[in-house]
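Dear colleague,

Thank you for sharing your sequence with our group. We've completed the structure prediction you requested, and as agreed, I am returning the results in plain text so they can be pasted directly into your records. Please verify that the sequence below matches your submission; if there's any discrepancy, let me know and we will rerun it promptly.
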Amino acid sequence: MTQLRVVIDNLFDADPSGVTRYTTEITRALIRTAENGDSVTGVIASHPQQLISRLEAQLPGLDRLIRLPASSSQLALAWNMGIPPRLLSDGTTHSPTMLAPFFSHNRLLEPGVQTVVTLHSGAIWTAPETLSRRERMRIGRLLKLTERYADAIVVTHHELAHLVDQNTRMGDRVQVVPVSPSRHLVARGSVAGRARELGYPDRFLIAFASERPASLRLLLAAYAQAQIDEPLLLIGRQDPGQTPASRIIADSGLNADQVRLLGEVDDEALAVLNTRANALVYLGDADALGLPLFDAMVARTPVIYPESESLLEVTGGAGLGVPLEGSSLVDGMAAAMRTVVTDKEAVKRLGQEGADRARSFTWEDSARAIWALHRSLT
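Please find the predicted structure tokens below.
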């Protein structure tokens, strides 16, 4: 019997992200896969009751919520600094992020006391220039706390596990648990009609405005080189302080009919976009989660992506991977874009390959792996 405490305070973040979605999906799956006698408890900071009620509706089956008498910022500051979390009793704690109540404990003498955290990105090692000095310092502190106190660290792909192994002393405490598709992001029924209501064109490609500026410039250069009629729709929110996508588009020489900024869209609209698009063009970070790839693949939409180790772990080679070595990445991306708008047979085959690959992963399997990890630590 395990009472698993899951740190879910990031679900109150004002700006949702891929990690926020991961927290939601993995927590729901942990609740669904709990065996007889097991339970899942949420750990949150202090929030207004209206927000807490909304969270409880998001996570049906949650045993209860532990509400700590501190704000989110106070909690984050304390846990970032490694201040002993005496606000929480000893127990089994899982965090879908790196933020957790670290403290000294002897798991061999106290088998029910354990802390497991999750690392989603290796940018601190692979692309430190993309992080602010403050962010690098924060991640560095959390990694040191993890090395010292965590019973295990979950990563979402093997390439990231390799980075952790190279740069930390976690040793055999690293566990790979892959992400999975969100199957509710596939539109049903009259998709064409709904797309028209939302003002979307009949045919289009999609990409994410949250790509790094260098990636956005590369993507737009490839789109311009492809010389296709289908517009490119950029969706999603950009990180604060990032070069505005509108400026990058203007610098590219492409006009508003060719590239459209849709901004943040809700799940219903995202499902329509996933289902109607000719393709998703995804560059992502070198160690990206890859959740948007799965969303498109489930919807039988071809995916175009650079063949990094982490993205190949998601796609398994399905879709149109562009080699990182040899010919220019821009040339390869442009050729792939032309394929998905001119070759109907290829589009059908690529869609089937992606759907077959996506069926190999479920959030339930991911959650069972996490339950098994915690049981192995007792």
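Summary note from our side: DSSP finds 15 helices and 13 strands in the chain.

Kind regards,
the structure core
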